[in-house]
Write a structure and sequence with these properties.
By secondary structure, the chain is mainly alpha-helical. The chain is built from 8 helices and 2 strands, in the order H-E-H-E-H-H-H-H-H-H.
Length: about 180
């Protein structure tokens, strides 16, 4: 598992919720039911982020989420702008995964992957993978496998928000 490359296995539990709204509902429920545990929300930002996570989630059209009572600032984290941006931090893993026909030159060259718009991330992954045996990037067919293969150290270096997430997770799971 991707997070187990950074955080001690067994020291945390990941609950995949499906939709954004389901993730937020699950987060609020977990806060109420598991008050003794450290619970955090991790969702795509969907757009550029110019504010702290809770403020972004409150102001983003379609979310308008209020920070729940009892939740701290460091319990909301964003994958900026989408999880797939993390893949762009480890181009070598992408090339290894897709193999022959992978068009590495189709990938954005920006060091800070958070500056790459959601649409550009998906277009670049589609264009780079199109001529491979696996075909165009597909979230459910390729996403989780790729997440397992990328190097978290490269993601941390290329994404300030990922770096913040890992720092909080390490703090909360140590001991």
């Amino acid at each position: 598992m991707f997070l187990e490359k950074v955080i001690r296995p067994g020291s945390f539990q990941v609950i995949a919720s499906g939709s954004r709204a389901a993730a937020f509902d699950d987060f609020r429920s977990a806060l109420r039911r598991h008050q003794e545990d450290y619970i955090l929300l991790l969702v795509d930002s969907e757009t550029a982020v110019e504010a702290m996570p809770w403020q972004h989630l409150n102001e983003r059209e379609g979310d308008n989420w209020q920070r729940p009572d009892g939740a701290s600032d460091d319990q909301a984290h964003l994958m900026v702008q989408v999880m797939e941006a993390w893949f762009l931090a480890d181009k070598e893993a992408l090339a290894d995964y897709y193999g022959q026909g992978f068009q590495r030159n189709s990938l954005p060259r920006r060091q800070n992957i958070e500056q790459i718009a959601k649409e550009e991330v998906f277009r670049a992954l589609r264009d780079a993978s199109r001529r491979t045996q696996k075909g165009d990037y597909h979230k459910t067919r390729h996403g989780f496998d790729l997440l397992e293969q990328i190097d978290p150290a490269l993601v941390r270096k290329a994404s300030p928000h990922a770096n913040s997430l890992f720092a909080v997770l390490k703090r909360e799971t140590s001991g």
